[in-house]
Amino acid sequence: MRLLLLGPPGAGKGTQARLLASRLKSPHIASGDLLRDAMEQATPLGREAKAYVERGDLVPDEIVLGVIAERLKAPDAEGFVLDGFPRTGGQARDLDRALEDLGRTLDAVLHLEVPDEEIVERLTGRLFCPQCQRVYHVLHDPPREEGTCDDCGGPLSARKDDDAETVRHRLRVQYHEPIGSLLKYYDKRGLVVPVDGMGSVKEVSERIAKAIEAGT
Ligand code: ADP
Ligand code: AMP
Asked: 3-state DSSP call for residue 20?
């Protein structure tokens, strides 16, 4: 299956995409993870993206498309769970062109809906593993051992762009402003499936599983 997860930053896209990808045995492809990797390795694209990511702004389309299009060409990406891309109508058109070149189409676009007040709480409590990119929450989804990743044993840290002020900025410029045109684009093709993102990680993952079953 080829699935997209849309939703505000902090909606739980990465958390759910990881579970979904493991169930579907497909890769979880996250634009934020690919950009952070590129920044860590100080590639030319990573160096260009850095200031935008740190400010909580959208990285220009051509930079993000560069990292995503490359990843989609990999032999393991026949099916995928895409998280964080596209975020604008322009990126949605870019994605369609990239998929068309590969002879592929999307099966569903899941829109995870979570109110802003909850987002700030989730993101200011988020921990992540820079080694394997798994995310946790200090209260809602803690690691087994404090400060250590369950999967790879790496040390956990908070993301620099998860402070309350940057989160509010990200919500506005990366979600509230562009989401309307993005949903309209996919709605025309009947692909959008709204999913209530409130409740426990397990409850949301069960809702997603049901939504996918109902649509296939
Ligand atoms: P996104 O990828 O949409 O930015 P994440 O998956 O990183 O969001 O989740 C943001 C934060 O919220 C993380 O700390 C994560 O552990 C936590 N989280 C995810 N799903 C839930 C949930 N259903 N309830 C409470 N916290 C959650
Ligand atoms: P995320 O891990 O999804 O929260 O993304 C981290 C940061 O990477 C965002 O705050 C943006 O600066 C940037 N980013 C991720 N995905 C995109 C995208 N599709 N378009 C533009 N910028 C993005």
From this structure: helix
**Tens-level pLDDT at each residue, the chain (216 residues):** 999 999 999 999 999 999 999 999 999 999 999 999 999 999 999 999 999 999 999 999 999 999 999 999 999 999 999 999 999 999 999 999 999 999 999 999 999 999 999 999 999 999 999 999 999 999 999 999 999 999 999 999 999 999 999 999 999 999 999 999 999 999 999 999 999 999 999 999 999 999 988 875
Amino acid (one-letter) located at 131: Q
31 lines ligand 2 (CB under 6 A): yes
Question: What spacing in Å lies between the alpha carbon of 127 and ligand 1's midpoint?
Answer: 10
pTM above 0.90, yes or no: yes
* Distance from C-alpha of 211 to C-alpha of 193, rounded to nearest angstrom: 7
Give nearest CA residue, ligand 1 atom 5.
12
Q: Whose CA is nearest to atom 12 of ligand 1?
A: 122
Q: What is the DSSP letter of 191?
A: -
